[in-house]
């Protein structure tokens, strides 16, 4: 399908995605946020990234000011949204920077459209989950469907949280429910097919745990991935430690091939 572009909006099939576009030329960084966040979660990184290339941030479907089609969604649906953004903005290839759920979508995009993804930066994400975690994702989905944004926030962050969820709670519920697929159909066995270089960043105190990132690293092709565990940090590295994220990114980019670093087509 073709996507129509208007200021800050990309039209999809019956819904539209909000996006922000800043910076200059290559490489292009496509930033994908996590569950119940918005593109604003990248505010502390957007400026430094824009000094290094072009930065495209989106509200994933149902989140923030983005719409969503009715009914369930899959991680491949979200990956198609991401690639559709590249299509709409005439971007040939991008380094996808994904946090949490955004990292799952980034990996799915790299598997579905490898010719469009020149690199992955995966922050605090996972490729599989336990039956217990899958049940928690389902409780989040039910809480969002029954209690709206307030129910969603309580289910994720607990009673008394001062956070707010912006977006369509029912659509976000479908994204949460999609995450249960990481138990019955994990990404891990497929990761050996990812051809682009990968930088994994995770906080030492991330509740998803450094082990989840280690699992991804070990499942990727040899020498394709670099893992950095940041001491004392939690889940939202892009908020709590943007300077460390940029420093790790710069070190990684300096070691990447020109095609990966600049987002140009690979001749390999």
Secondary structure: elements and pairs:
Blueprint: E1 5-6, E2 9-11, E3 16-23, E4 28-32, H1 43-50, E5 54-58, H2 75-88, E6 94-99, H3 101-112, E7 117-123, H4 131-157, H5 169-178, H6 181-184, E8 198-203, H7 210-219, E9 225-230, H8 237-240, H9 242-255, H10 258-262
Parallel strand pairs: 4-5, 4-6, 6-7, 7-8, 8-9
Antiparallel strand pairs: 1-2, 2-3, 3-5
Helix pairs in contact: 1-9, 2-3, 4-5
Could you characterize the architecture of this molecule?
- This protein is of the alpha/beta class and 268 residues long.
- It has a single domain, classed as 3-Layer(aba) Sandwich (Rossmann fold).
- It has ten helices and nine strands.
- Strands 1-2-3-5-4-6-7-8-9 form a nine-stranded mixed β-sheet, with helices on both faces.
- The radius of gyration is 17 Å and the shape is globular.
- The model has no long low-confidence stretch (mean pLDDT 93).
Structure, briefly:
This protein is α/β, with parallel strands linked by helices and 268 residues long. The chain has helices at 43-50, 75-88, 101-112, 131-157, 169-178, 181-184, 210-219, 237-240, 242-255, 258-262; strands spanning 5-6, 9-11, 16-23, 28-32, 54-58, 94-99, 117-123, 198-203, 225-230.
């Amino acid at each position: 399908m073709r996507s129509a572009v208007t200021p800050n909006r990309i039209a999809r099939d019956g819904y539209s995605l909000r996006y922000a576009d800043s910076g200059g030329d290559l490489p292009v960084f496509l930033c994908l946020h996590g569950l119940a966040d918005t593109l604003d979660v990248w505010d502390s990184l957007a400026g430094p990234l824009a000094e290094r290339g072009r930065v495209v941030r989106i509200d994933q479907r149902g989140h923030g000011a983005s719409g969503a089609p009715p009914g369930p969604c899959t991680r491949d649906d979200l990956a198609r949204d991401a690639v559709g953004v590249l299509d709409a903005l005439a971007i040939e290839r991008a380094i996808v920077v994904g946090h949490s759920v955004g990292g799952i979508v980034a990996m799915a995009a790299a598997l579905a459209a490898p010719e469009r993804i020149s690199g992955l930066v995966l922050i605090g994400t996972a490729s599989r989950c336990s039956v217990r975690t899958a049940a928690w994702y389902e409780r989040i989905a039910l809480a969002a469907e029954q209690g709206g944004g307030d129910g969603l926030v309580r289910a994720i962050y607990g009673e008394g949280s001062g956070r707010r969820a912006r977006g369509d709670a029912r659509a976000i519920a479908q994204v949460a429910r999609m995450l249960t697929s990481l138990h019955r159909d994990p990404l891990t066995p497929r990761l050996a097919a990812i051809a682009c270089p990968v930088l994994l960043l995770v906080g030492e105190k991330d509740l998803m745990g450094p082990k989840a990132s280690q699992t991804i690293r070990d499942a990727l092709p040899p020498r394709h991935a670099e893992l950095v565990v940041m001491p004392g940090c939690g889940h939202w590295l892009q908020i709590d430690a943007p300077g460390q994220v940029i420093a790790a990114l710069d070190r990684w980019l300096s070691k990447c091939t020109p095609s990966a670093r600049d987002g140009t087509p690979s001749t390999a």
